[in-house]
Specification:
With about 500 residues, the chain is mainly beta. The protein is about 5% helix and about 45% strand.
Length: about 500
């Protein structure tokens, strides 16, 4: 083996370690089947970041972390969630002891849970390695008894990245939207925040070059970045150096609030799954990042088929401008999902829904961003014995999925059930599988079995004093495996 070959192997292995992907290993044999089998390997390390949940003394926050069984990967391993300020290094503190993790998970298939009260709950940084890395997921769920944003606010802890889109943000009167930027790394991140309204980009110098120090979290109030009040905005967050996790916390004085997660990347067709059957108001916000206009066909995938909402058949989105339309009670008492496709030319767009339940002074809101399919497998944590609704939508061909309820965080045995989703419909599973003898909370894992792509979301509800408190999380593919370069073939070429 010559020096060039040795160097390339070192580079491949180093990249695997740095990015958290599976380290390089060549095919087990020389035949094509062996090479293909080695093409995807379980990830060896996963990172998740949870934003600061609340600034209210009346808040109660629960955390749940989980790795599905059968994820593959190395035996053993550990998963931890640490306050960001305590995750600066792995070195012991002055007293010789290492920082105590907030949550520690040691076994796949068994969720772990914890709670925090009041306004002192910090942002968390999490890492999982070995057999706990593939498919590792975590969620924080906060309940506010009163005040602005009162209700239930839930968010999946997310991996750091460099580019995020948030259609559905706002600086309107009575609403407070904060973008939380969390940096997991040892060097500072520099982040730009752009806002786009109905007339194009919102002029602001404040959103440029926001510094996020190592192992820290920064909340930025959107109204400080805008020149006036905007009911509907699209926000673009980019890290010009470093990486961050980003999520928007939205609170409304009258309508409660929730977290607005980043939407799926710009695409010419989008799926927004899981509008509750009792939604009293649904607002669609869309944005075309380029210079070209987009004409979108708006459809609702209901329980029985795909229909076009009356008076809202199409939505014209001007390039670089945010468009919004109120769809009212579009589901008409039947759960559904929104499908957006192009009517003419193909122009990538991003989109999200703001969903309201309840009436008068007892309203509550949540957000549903466009999301990717569940792919091979997707998981959502923090399900309860009551109040979980799973929505499955097949925008194209019919599909079959397997849904598995994990063991409970404090006890219980897993349970599974298979569902078939007809093409062009939404299947709302009001009573998804629950672990036998459940104690605590549990996770739901959706696995593709056959057919076309399936998109999914989970609604968690906990009514209180007549307020329909709820939150919605989407279930994109957990990316528990990664493609490994066929280095043996590439190295052979170099040797020649």
């Amino acid at each position: 083996m010559n020096r060039t070959t040795q160097s390339l192997i070192a580079v491949v292995v180093a990249l695997g370690a740095v990015t958290g992907f599976a380290a390089f290993s060549g095919p087990a044999g020389t035949d094509d089947d062996s090479a293909k089998a080695a093409a995807r390997q379980p990830v060896e390390r996963s990172s998740l970041l949870c934003p600061v949940p609340s600034g209210s003394d009346l808040a109660e926050t629960s955390y749940t972390a989980f790795t599905p069984k059968g994820s593959g990967g190395e035996a053993g391993g550990k998963a931890e969630l640490l306050p960001v300020t305590k995750a600066l290094t792995d070195a012991p503190k002055d007293d010789g002891k290492k920082a105590k993790p907030f949550l520690t998970q040691k076994t796949p298939g068994q969720p772990v849970a914890g709670e925090e009260s009041g306004a002192e709950a910090p942002a968390l940084i999490g890492t999982a390695d070995g057999g706990l890395a593939p498919g590792w997921t975590a969620q924080q769920t906060t309940t506010y008894a009163a005040g602005s944003g009162r209700g239930m606010q839930g968010v999946n802890c997310t991996a750091p990245d460099t580019d995020f889109w948030f259609p559905g943000a706002s600086t309107a009167k009575g609403r407070s939207d904060y973008i939380h930027l969390t940096n997991p790394d040892d060097s500072a991140a520099v982040v730009d925040v752009e806002l786009f309204g109905p007339e194009g980009e919102v002029t602001s110098q404040v959103g440029d070059s926001i510094q996020v120090q190592p192992h820290s979290s920064v909340p930025v109030l959107l109204s400080t970045l805008a020149d006036k009040q905007y009911t509907n905005l699209t926000m673009h967050v980019t890290a010009r150096s470093g990486r961050v996790a980003a999520a928007v916390q939205s609170s409304d004085e009258k309508l409660g609030g929730d977290w607005l997660p980043a939407a799926a990347d710009p695409a010419d067709s989008l799926v927004l799954p899981g509008i509750p059957k009792d939604a009293t108001s649904v607002r669609l916000v869309a944005f075309a990042p380029g210079a070209d206009d987009a004409d979108l066909k708006v459809q609702l995938a209901s329980a029985t088929g795909t229909i076009t909402p009356a008076r809202h058949e199409n939505l014209h989105v001007k390039g670089g401008m945010t468009a919004a339309v109120d769809l009212a009670d579009v589901t008409k008492g039947e759960a559904g999902s929104l499908l957006l496709t192009q009517t003419d030319t193909s122009v990538p767009v991003v989109a999200a829904l703001r969903v309201t339940r309840g009436k008068g002074s007892k309203q509550e809101t949540a957000f549903i961003p466009a999301t990717e399919p569940v792919g091979t497998r997707a998981t959502v944590a923090d399900n309860r014995a009551k109040g979980s609704t799973l929505s499955l939508v097949a925008p194209g061909k019919s599909a079959t999925v397997k849904v598995t309820a994990s063991a409970g965080s404090e006890g219980g045995s897993p349970a599974s059930k298979t569902y078939t989703v007809k093409g062009g419909t939404t299947l709302a599973v009001d009573h998804p599988p629950v672990p036998a003898g459940l104690k605590g909370s549990y996770a739901l894992t959706v696995e593709s079995v056959s057919g076309g792509p399936v998109h999914a979301s989970r609604m968690l509800s906990a009514p209180e004093e007549g307020i329909p408190m709820f939150t919605v999380q989407t279930l994109p593919d957990d990316r528990g495996t990664v493609a490994v370069p066929e280095a043996e073939r590439d190295l052979a070429v170099l040797q020649k």
